[in-house]
# Entry
Amino acid sequence: MEKTRAWIALLVAALALTACGQPDFTYVRDRDGTTYFKVPASFTQLNADPIELYLSGDQPNSQAAALRAQRVWSTAFDQSAKPTAAHLLSSADPFVYATVHRLTDDERDSISLNRLRDFILPVTDQVRQLYEAQAEASGRAPLYTRFELLSDQVLLLDHGARGVRVRFNYQIGDDVQTFDDTAILDEKGGTVSVMLIGCQSICFRKRAAEFDKIANSFKLLRLPG
# Structure
């Protein structure tokens, strides 16, 4: 009996040590170490190159794609059992995309809070109307329809950095997808850091508190010098 109890105690201790060795979060910093966030360890990290090609429209082996790779860092995380970059825009499971852009001179001159809102997806009235007009001119039905703005917050951050956090719905195919989009312009006006969290609206309502924790972990880091 004593041996049995001792064995159970040893087994429980071993399980506890194993559990302690498994991190709860994956901690992420961008290539230059200026942007930080964390996601639950249950998310699978993905290569975000297909997302960059989709968002930019660049050909994979083009000079434009090569130049973009030099000034754009990105990563993605998917909690689906079958993770894929295609879940950026439509998934029943949570998806997180993060990117940091070093702005060109022309982009610096044109950056604004509205530009931050529209950095990944069309959010403002003007850009949504432009998107719909372009879809109509091409003879294709727009992918994003029935836009609903849920919240829009201006962020005034330390040391002069500023940004926006916008939450909105789009119908994509047969499903309504909710997106939580945080975009931050650094204090020097040289880089934009963006985190986009998305999943179907039913999923988002159930797990909004969890997504708030992920979004609130998204911060700029001040480097020495």
Observations:
- The radius of gyration is 21 Å.
- The longest strand covers residues 144-156.
- Residues 2-20 form the longest helix (19 residues).
